[in-house]
Amino acid sequence: MNALTYPPHARTYRYDEIDREFLQERIAEFRGQIERRLAGELTEDEFKPLRLMNGLYLQLHAYMLRVAIPYGLLNSAQLRQLGRIARRWDRGFGHFTTRQNIQFNWTKLEDVPAMLEALAEVDMHAIQTSGNCIRNTTTDEYAGATPDEVVDPRVYAEILRQWSTLHPEFTWLPRKFKIAITGSPNDRVAAQVHDVGVLAKRNERGEVGFEIHAGGGLGRTPIIARKLRDWVPEAEFLAYMEAVLRVYNALGQRENIYKARIKILVRDLGDEFTQMVEREYERMPRDRYRLDPEIVAAIGAHFAPPPFASLEDQALHADPEFRQWASASVRAHRQPGYASVTISLKPIGGIPGDASADQMEAVADLAERHSFGEIRVTHVQNLVLPHVRQEDLYALWGGLRAAGLATPNIGLISDIIACPGMDYCALATARSIPIAQRISERFASLDRQHDIGECFINISGCINACGHHHVAHIGILGVDKRGEEVYQVTLGGSATNDAAIGELIGPAFSYDTIVDAVETLITTYIAHRVPGERFIDTYRRVGVTPFKDALYAPA
Amino acid sequence: MPLLEDGRLRPDDWTSIEDDAPLPDGPAIISLDRLRAEAAALAGRNAPLGVAVAPETQPEEIAPFLDRLALVAVRMPKPKDGRAFTQARSLREHHGFTGEIRATGHIIPDHYAMLLRCGVTTVEVPEGTDPATWTRSRDAIRVGYQAAQGADRPLSLLRRKLELA
Ligand code: SF4
């Protein structure tokens, strides 16, 4: 099997025989379900949730297969296989998503079983990437590498993956359910806008425990999560998660799809929700759900540090162009002499999150050469090579440039999140990708982007907010106004520790004027900023008025 | 309607009784309202008694009556409505109910294994059901990553082969 050719030190969870058997059984089951549908034994209504739970959506022009990348972790053999799938069964591209997954937007129904087989060859699948079940858990793309990490979140993300896979009680929930977990005090996973957000931490004795937040979310009713508990001991982690899910499954709204997420239940019940979870947790037969330290250790072994060389930190190569790239893309590592590198999937004027088959293969090669064969997908639709020797950075940059992957814009204004919008999505009310492309082209000058500094723009093509516009510094929401696409602007959102929902600034802009509006916001920020201030800092200090005046002042 | 138990069809020897109809001497399933209203009178009844609960009923509501109930029927109004799974699990786990838990409503074979794992005993199926479709679905996946009702071993992610009947 291909699994034998995995790079030896890539720390992805390695399937054993039971995991593989499960996957084969699941593929056979889905094949049987397709046959029953074709034979008329299942109605379309009965079949739809089964198809969704296997990752298959019907979009505007074609089926889309969403493949799970558990907590965004890939090894090079897997990424290469994704490239192969893109070339063979899609149009040569894959699209990385904000849930650290990958989508193939041009899938033919009859090819799906073969695609699933190809995924299974590298221990991958499309299970629970859609449907009203527990979805792929997301985590910190710098896990195991970042200096500020207290607990390795990958271990618990994998435990959550196994626990939530075909959970007998929680596969027919009122609505989809998304969990994010971080093991660092600096939240990079947007924990507070998830159905459940988990902060793994340690007490004075060094024991692991979890702070649990629930009921956050975006969509048409954006809400910051409520903290349920400051500390759940490691052994009780799954018991507590079960308690949260049980209360939700029993009481969540099922009549109105827009009120069915857990955030509405938590908002409406308030503290009573917390009390109900606590009561459920108290009376559970705790032994039955105890997370055995042996299991934690066994799963933890999959994520042991790779064999780092003992090196010293060193100065960057002097090439100014390289330095510009490095200042955006290279990040400190906990191991001296190493760094983490973020690869931009946001070329100027490109489609955010898209990668070609050739690019996937190029990244797989570079990961093998420079990062123990390991790759991460980020929730802002970029890729990360987590463990790169500083002495190799210059060579890596050369390799990325050759593949068209060295745009030095990580964290800058053209590092835009955009949902698929009208180009693919059946629910869209406006285009989203072309707006991202036009903004990126307007700010094409990299010197200017670096001068503007950190600024997050997120774009959604309808009120469902898949582009997370509410938590962007500048959020753009496309809506339909009497048959015309118009774009609302929100300012001041944040998805980190200081999570905040952006504020609607005023009347919407047309497709033609929205890019000018962004430009006006940026020039206003430049005019008001004091040294060292990012866009969001200036906005928080001076408030909305100067921006409003600049946007809506009579010419 | 026939019942599916342990993968085989069997006739239903229970009768569902409307709230205003007299109770027969044989096994009878009544509503929770009636159970509440006639609790005292029903205490002396000898024939087996069952209750049908709505999806929104919390198992605590029937807890006071469980010791005289031989059957609880839970219902899935739509295939997507999974409240019955939590009701069944809660009846077994929190209330120690050992009688029959029957699943009714719009149930498809793909629910079967999960219903069993949550503590359901029987499923009400349409006339003409081929039980082979149901057992195939039940047995399609023999790996379970979670603790199931009925299994006496605690949650174990590493020892996770299902022991299905
Ligand atoms: S935000 Fe709307 S348009 Fe964009 S992907 Fe989500 S549902 Fe589709």
TrEMBL record, chain A:
<keyword id="KW-0004">4Fe-4S</keyword>
<keyword id="KW-0560">Oxidoreductase</keyword>
<keyword id="KW-0349">Heme</keyword>
<feature type="domain" description="Nitrite/Sulfite reductase ferredoxin-like">
    <location>
        <begin position="340"/>
        <end position="402"/>
    </location>
</feature>
<feature type="domain" description="Nitrite/sulphite reductase 4Fe-4S">
    <location>
        <begin position="415"/>
        <end position="551"/>
    </location>
</feature>
<feature type="domain" description="Nitrite/Sulfite reductase ferredoxin-like">
    <location>
        <begin position="63"/>
        <end position="122"/>
    </location>
</feature>
<feature type="domain" description="Nitrite/sulphite reductase 4Fe-4S">
    <location>
        <begin position="130"/>
        <end position="281"/>
    </location>
</feature>
<dbReference type="InterPro" id="IPR005117">
    <property type="entry name" value="NiRdtase/SiRdtase_haem-b_fer"/>
</dbReference>
<keyword id="KW-0411">Iron-sulfur</keyword>
<dbReference type="InterPro" id="IPR006067">
    <property type="entry name" value="NO2/SO3_Rdtase_4Fe4S_dom"/>
</dbReference>
<dbReference type="InterPro" id="IPR036136">
    <property type="entry name" value="Nit/Sulf_reduc_fer-like_dom_sf"/>
</dbReference>
<dbReference type="InterPro" id="IPR045854">
    <property type="entry name" value="NO2/SO3_Rdtase_4Fe4S_sf"/>
</dbReference>
<dbReference type="Pfam" id="PF03460">
    <property type="entry name" value="NIR_SIR_ferr"/>
</dbReference>
<keyword id="KW-0479">Metal-binding</keyword>
<keyword id="KW-0408">Iron</keyword>
<dbReference type="InterPro" id="IPR051329">
    <property type="entry name" value="NIR_SIR_4Fe-4S"/>
</dbReference>
<dbReference type="Pfam" id="PF01077">
    <property type="entry name" value="NIR_SIR"/>
</dbReference>
<comment type="similarity">
    <text>Belongs to the nitrite and sulfite reductase 4Fe-4S domain family.</text>
</comment>
<dbReference type="InterPro" id="IPR006066">
    <property type="entry name" value="NO2/SO3_Rdtase_FeS/sirohaem_BS"/>
</dbReference>
<protein>
    <submittedName>
        <fullName>Nitrite/sulfite reductase</fullName>
    </submittedName>
</protein>
From TrEMBL, chain B:
<dbReference type="InterPro" id="IPR008318">
    <property type="entry name" value="UCP030820"/>
</dbReference>
<protein>
    <submittedName>
        <fullName>DUF934 domain-containing protein</fullName>
    </submittedName>
</protein>
<feature type="compositionally biased region" description="Basic and acidic residues">
    <location>
        <begin position="1"/>
        <end position="13"/>
    </location>
</feature>
<feature type="region of interest" description="Disordered">
    <location>
        <begin position="1"/>
        <end position="21"/>
    </location>
</feature>
<dbReference type="Pfam" id="PF06073">
    <property type="entry name" value="DUF934"/>
</dbReference>
